């Protein structure tokens, strides 16, 4: 995986991130979702590296990146903190302005990076994601049944870690190594069998139901919106449209018209359709004038 890329660990404030970076040209950050690690991008990153400097970290608490001790309100796992990690990481690597791409939970981090650091983010790409407050305000029976893991992972009365760690193979499902790549498969399963990572992922969801929602609500009340060009990549065979048209939901959060493309894949677009994903990102970065 990642031929020609550098793999290292970079300390950024209170956490140390495992990160791969390579290529040359304008910088772009790739942020994975749950329950993956940065290796989910193994077939996308080399394609983008032909024209861009690509940086792919494990989010704090995921993969082999560290997580600070738990804090009240789960604020150590807030997307605002993860966005700060991204900014500090890019600064350490010598990049003062960059595009950010995020999938699933990484989409929340990408969105928060663009909201909190508008002068640093040139382009935003979200893949199968909405602002967390938009999901929570639309919660109904259909959403609770389909996305029930949000409530399981996010509650604290009977922590999910005890159930998951007892038999990770019974809880998590991934395609086999022949489908998602042997190295990627091995990396994600090493993470899923690590109780510290399982806790970090649960804390991510706990923050999502609490402090992340508060941050979204505060931004909306203040009229803050994403100022850079934005694109949504939506999986055809997923259910981001469970609340209706996701592009319409995104519109009030953006200063500019949203570019909305559908990828003929299931949820894990980067693994199922890496060529299409890389081409869509590259075209967006090339044709959308930065703010």
Write the layout of secondary structure elements.
Layout: E1 6-12, E2 15-23, E3 27-31, H1 45-48, E4 53-57, H2 79-92, E5 98-103, H3 105-116, E6 121-127, H4 132-137, H5 141-146, H6 149-154, H7 160-166, H8 168-171, H9 177-180, H10 182-192, H11 195-208, H12 211-222, E7 230-235, H13 246-250, E8 259-263, H14 269-272, H15 274-287
Parallel strand pairs: 3-4, 3-5, 5-6, 6-7, 7-8
Antiparallel strand pairs: 1-2, 2-4
Helix pairs in contact: 2-3, 7-11
Q: Would you write up a description of this structure?
A:
The protein is an alpha/beta fold and 291 residues long. Helices cover 42% and strands 17% of the residues. The protein has 15 helices and 8 strands. It has an 8-stranded mixed beta sheet. Helix 1 links the parallel strand 3 and strand 4. Helix 2 crosses helix 3 and helix 7 runs antiparallel to helix 11. The longest helix is centred in the first third of the chain and has 14 residues. It is globular and about 50 Å long. The chain starts with 5 loop residues before the first strand and ends with a helix. The mean pLDDT is 97.
Biggest β-sheet description: 8 strands, mixed
Number of strands: 8
Uncertain residue segments: none
Shape: globular
H/E element order: EEEHEHEHEHHHHHHHHHEHEHH
User: Helical region count?
Assistant: 15
Q: Briefly note the structural class of the backbone.
A: alpha/beta
Residue-averaged pLDDT, rounded? 97
Percent of residues in beta strands?
Answer: 15-25%
User: Measured on Cα atoms, how large is the radius of gyration?
Assistant: 17 Å
What labels would you give this structure?
about 290 residues, alpha/beta, 8-stranded mixed sheet
């Amino acid at each position: 995986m990642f031929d020609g890329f550098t793999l290292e660990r970079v300390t950024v404030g209170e956490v140390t991130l495992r990160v791969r970076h390579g290529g040359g040209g304008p910088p772009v950050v790739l942020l994975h979702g749950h329950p993956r690690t940065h290796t989910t991008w193994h077939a996308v990153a080399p394609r983008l590296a032909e024209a861009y400097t690509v940086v792919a970290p494990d989010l704090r608490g995921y993969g082999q990146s560290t997580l600070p001790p738990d804090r009240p309100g789960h604020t150590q796992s807030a997307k605002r903190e993860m966005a700060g990690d991204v900014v500090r990481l890019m600064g350490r690597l010598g990049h003062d302005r960059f595009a950010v791409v995020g999938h699933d939970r990484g989409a929340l981090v990408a969105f928060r990076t663009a909201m909190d650091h508008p002068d640093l983010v040139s382009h935003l790409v979200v893949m199968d994601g909405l602002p967390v407050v938009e999901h929570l305000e639309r919660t109904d029976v259909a959403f609770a049944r389909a996305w029930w893991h949000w409530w399981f992972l996010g509650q604290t009365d009977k922590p999910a870690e005890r159930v998951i760690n007892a038999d990770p193979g019974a809880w998590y499902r991934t395609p086999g190594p022949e489908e998602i790549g042997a190295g990627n498969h091995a990396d994600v399963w090493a993470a899923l069998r690590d109780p510290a990572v399982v806790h970090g992922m649960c804390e991510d969801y706990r923050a999502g139901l609490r402090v992340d929602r508060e941050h979204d609500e505060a931004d909306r009340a203040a009229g803050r919106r994403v100022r850079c060009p934005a694109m949504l990549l939506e999986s055809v065979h997923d259910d981001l449209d469970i609340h209706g048209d996701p592009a319409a939901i995104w519109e009030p959060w953006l200063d500019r018209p949203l570019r909305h493309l559908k990828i003929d894949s299931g949820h894990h677009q980067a693994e199922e359709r890496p060529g299409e994903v890389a081409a869509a990102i590259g075209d967006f970065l090339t044709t959308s004038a930065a703010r």
